[in-house]
Design goal:
Blueprint: H1 3-39, E1 43-44, E2 50-58, E3 64-75, E4 82-89, E5 92-98
Antiparallel strand pairs: 1-3, 2-3, 3-4, 4-5
């Protein structure tokens, strides 16, 4: 087996592993947002999370891990779209922010 083949095989495995882990974390972020929207009587639109940034950061133990920021759209009335953002440090939810939105008079608008 050549050294080149070993190197490129290792690179391919690392990329697939990174993609797999990133996909799992994206689904975790989507689950956090879905639960929050349901609790606040909001509707997550399109079930889409858009990755806005990935950068290294240190957690509370000082370990270097990736911080990921996603954006999404939601509605409170079914008519207007609003922006939201979620940030995860590794698999830990760091921040979930929503733009100001209209609170409907009827609490059962989206149910």
């Amino acid at each position: 087996m050549s050294l080149s083949l070993i190197f490129w095989s290792t690179v391919a495995v690392a990329l697939v592993s990174f993609w797999w882990q990133s996909d799992q974390i994206k689904h975790l972020a989507l689950a956090h947002v879905h639960r929050y929207c349901k609790a606040q009587n909001l509707q997550l639109l399109d079930q889409i999370m858009v990755l806005r940034g990935v950068w290294p950061a240190r957690n509370d133990q000082g370990s270097l891990i990736l911080r990921r920021r996603y954006s999404f759209e939601f509605t409170s009335t079914g008519q207007a779209r609003y922006q939201g953002r979620i940030e995860l440090l590794g698999k830990h939810l760091e921040k979930l922010e929503l733009d100001a939105y209209i609170i409907p008079d009827d609490e059962n608008t989206l149910q």
